[in-house]
Amino acid sequence: MDKTININIAGTLFQIDEVAFRILRDYIQAINNRFRNAEGGNETVEDIESRIAEILQSKKGLAGVITKENVESMISIIGKPEDFDLNETEPDQKIFPPQKKRMYRNPDDRIISGVCSGLGAYLDTDPVLFRILFVLFAVFFGTGIFLYIILWIALPEANSDTRKREMYGDSYHSAQYSGSYNNTSKIGSAFNEVFRAIGRVCFIIVRIFLIIIGVLFVITGFLAILTLLMVFVFKLPWAFTTDAFDSTLVYLPDFLNYIVNPSVAPWIIALSLLAIILPLLALIYWGVKMIFWFKAKDGIFSLAGFVLWVMVIAALSIILFNEGISFKETARSISQAIIPNPPDTLYIMTDHKVADLKYDKRFAVPDDDYTVFLVDSTKKMYISPDLKLSMTDDDNAKIEIRKRSSGRTRNDAVRKSESLIYNYRVSGDTLYLDEYFSIPSGSKWTADILSVNLYVPEKTVLYFGNSTEKLFHNVIEIHRVESDTIRSSGIDYDTRPWELGNKFWTITEDGLKEAEKVKTRQR
Q1: How many domains does the chain have?
Q2: How far apart are CA 510 and CA 353, in angstroms?
Q3: Could you please report the per-residue DSSP string of 49-103?
Q4: I want to staple 214 with a disulfide (CB 3.0 to 4.6 A). Which of 287, 324, 334, 399 is the partner?
Q5: What is the pLDDT of residues 404-429, one digit of tens each?
Q6: Is there a single domain that holds both residue 461 and residue 502?
Q7: Is 44 contained in some domain?
């Protein structure tokens, strides 16, 4: 490893390798010899050393050691000692060699952000010309505003002496000591005053707009975080009680335990909250900055927050993908039972009822009447089935149970569908149907669906009990079957499930029709 040396240049400590140190030492010695006998030479040498320290500070590598290449690059920027002209040097003027111009926004002569003044300094032109051009392009072509905003974002601000030297180039020193940084004429100055007045008005309008947007950001972010905490941490306090709307609510953490591995559920909740809260916190912070218009060196914190958010999203995606494989394949199983010699009137009643279940929570899919009832103590799930009616040309009635589940593979999905538990029974002229089917203990919910398809001869009269409406998913679906093939199917929009109770009905191609001859029976 090369030997390093600690040196002090203009009050700044550097670590420099041995070869670079010898070159820098000889260069500074030559500068001292050059200005030894010049008037104000000591001040000039101090200025040059300050410039050397500034350049070397910007060229530090990752290890912080100044190399030979860094020193040679610095010399190419400042120039060799013989490049300095002693005859034109004034006692109080800082000595800097010619350097390439760079484009910056000029904070010392700005109307809004200093873009036009920076362009004028770079092109050595009156900045009022660029201001007029931007106004013309904004009014007549509509592009001036967008171009100005792009330059505002793209150009850095000349907020240091080094950047100002790079912005003005060789004219910086004369401008600095004459007190003028532009060559604006009197007419241009008059235009500038007009632009400044317009700029102040625009600035006030923009500030008011930003304050309004900032307030909206803060309120939105705060309310969103408060809502998340109320829902997922405090579980909806008094305003949303479990008895509200005559229903029992299910919270995401509770329902996740029935879907995914219980050990994974807390991680999903925590990562989901972080994935939502982090952007909301950023929204609140941006809103506060818009309101109070302050500058802060928050780049590293913003980057760290963004990296953290990306890591959270990645981790959450991996977990959800791994758990979501359980829903990759979907399959169904079908079982049938014949009802020989069906009676002229078939009574359809409910057997085991939801009202008899001692469930803790209920999860319902809106507009579909698909409801899951959860029992916390046993971790069991009960789900509402769907009853469908079919008119057949066969002399026998038939009941068909169709089950559908999801799994990692098709065989896994078939196995899960076959394990679904549903009970029904036929007693004389009465068909008893349960109001729910269940998932075996220890099994997870995998979007399980069970439908009960009742096939009856065309002239059969159906009688529905009061609670049978719960067997229909808000609509009555009727099929026309000939030779075990469905010829037509549709929804009976004229009859609603809650209209069926304690009435006799016949199935027609147009839907259910109330039977003309009502049979009475003691039940």
Answers
A1: 3
A2: 31
A3: HHHHHHHHHHT--TT-EE-HHHHHHHHHHH--GGGS-GGG--TTSPP--------
A4: 287
A5: 999 999 999 999 999 999 999 998 88
A6: yes
A7: yes
